[in-house]
Amino acid sequence: MATICPVALDVSRLREEVRRTYSAVARDPTSEFHFHRGPDYAGSRLGYDLSELKSLPGPATAAFAGVGNPFDMERLESGATVIDIGSGAGMDCLLAGRRVGSAGSVIGFDMTDEMLARGRAAAGEAGLEQVRFEKADVQDLPLDGGSVDIVISNGVFNLLPDKAKLFRELYRVVRPGGRLQFADIIVGVELSEKVRNDIDLWTG
Amino acid sequence: MTELLEKTGFRNVAPRRFFDSFAGTTKERVAGKYQVRGANFIAYK
Question: Which pTM was predicted?
Fold first, then answer.
């Protein structure tokens, strides 16, 4: 399995392509994309509880585009402080907010204004005051060291070329004894330099 | 992924479950060629 993928692509162009792609998803999740979206996909392929997803505000679930299920691991404890890296439309933040309850807090970080707007509207509609969304560079989080119990994320780490920098930042903000529980894509074969530098494959 | 997380200082890093996240999409063939899958991971500090 490939674990380290040195790349020489244009990082600023990649960042803009990611932003463009996910802004388009936020504007119209039913458009044609080369990845699945929505609650039915999450329920049928990723093991989410579809009845719980149906109870969430539609704008948050319709634009969901994760690749796994961060909730299919350890239980999020009541009162925990949780952050979601690349929170998108906020579906996982809302689920986390229900699990940590009003004594906990959930912050979704994203770089896409349209996704942040969906998340904020959905949290308001769901009445989850413990859930909020912030625009931030996820490799330079506006958080104190050791202030986070649990980091969740779903299909976002693969979009960041400098994963070592991201992981160092997550290690900084997580408290001793805290944890990451996330989903991402993995590649089972060694990729050629040409493939690693193909932005269309990164944003796909 | 596991190697990089451990190098950062996280411990007990492990993939927990795998998903055919791209089955049925227009990228299914490419995903199959490069064995691309979704995976759940857990890692502790």
Answer: 0.87
